[in-house]
Amino acid sequence: MELSGAEIVLECFLEHGVDTVFGYPGGTILNIYDALYKYRDKITHYLTSHEQGAAHGADGYARATGKVGVCLATSGPGATNLVTGIATAYMDSIPLVAIT
């Protein structure tokens, strides 16, 4: 079975026990969002109104569940909007993966 790069990312999520992601779609991340539709029965996506909300949502999820928090955003300003949430998780040693 041939997989796209986006599908490989989602398969890696599943292999590592990721079943929930937070994010805000945009240009460079759309391939993952397209593939995420195929995985909708395995991975729950929470759409946020801003990238910063995605990072904080992933941080809170990781704190509450003990699992890794995952957030998705587009590159450029989308990525910089994740910084505060990433820093918050980092300062408290909370496992967080941010993909742009």
From the structure above, extract its key features.
alpha/beta, 5 helices, four-stranded parallel sheet, 4 strands, 100 residues, Rossmann fold
Can you tell me about this structure?
- With 100 residues, the protein is of the alpha/beta class.
- It has a single domain, classed as Rossmann fold, CATH 3.40.50.
- The chain is 48% helix and 16% strand.
- It is built from five helices and four strands.
- A four-stranded parallel β-sheet has the order 2-1-3-4, with helices on one face.
- Helix 2 links the parallel strand 1 and strand 2.
- Helix 1 packs across helix 2 and helix 3 runs parallel beside helix 5.
- The protein is globular, with a radius of gyration of 13 Å.
Shape: globular
Any idea how many domains? 1
Q: Class, according to the CATH hierarchy?
A: Alpha Beta
Order of helices and strands: HEHEHEHHE
Q: Could you state the CATH homologous superfamily? A: Thiamin diphosphate (ThDP)-binding fold, Pyr/PP domains
Number of strands: 4
Largest sheet: 4 strands, parallel
- The helix-and-strand class reads alpha/beta
Overall pLDDT level: 97
Q: How many helices?
A: 5
Which percent bin holds the helix content?
40-55%
Strand residue percentage: 15-25%
Spatial strand sequence of the major β-sheet: 2-1-3-4
